[in-house]
Amino acid sequence: MKAETLISGVSLGVSVIGFAVAILTLQRGNNNSSAATLVGLQTGFSNCWDNLRKAIRDEDEDSRKFYLAELLNLFESACGIINEGTLTGASKKLMVDYVCDCFRLLKELDVQCEARNLIDTNETYKEIRIFEAAHENGQFLAGAKENAREAGVIS
User: Fold this and answer.
1) Which of 145, 74, 136, 139 minimizes the C-alpha distance to 116?
2) Which end of the chain has less Cβ packing within 10 Å, N or C?
């Protein structure tokens, strides 16, 4: 009976250690995935900003509008990823801070009206509006839905 108890105890200990290792592996996997998502988003933002700056420098109005819309679509994706909790830890903090800083920069560039004019349905930039509601210092399109409704763009 003592041998059976010893074997049961050792088996229980090995199971507990295995469970702990599995949890740590999942956590590291989530952190790695979060970091990879962050790097991908930052690459996309870098490309969008470069294209928008070039369009502004070249005074190409059509390209400027196009790349502003592309940038906002990328912000919509980033805000959705943040809102659903895909990013964790330092990656989440870095992306939240980046989005808030960029929204402040876009305000300084005075493109809010133009951005609001891109709203054509109740779903347009919905994730950005959810992000804004959760992050006081990340306001950019605040009131955009109401403005679009008043302009008759959405119902």
Assistant:
1) 145
2) N
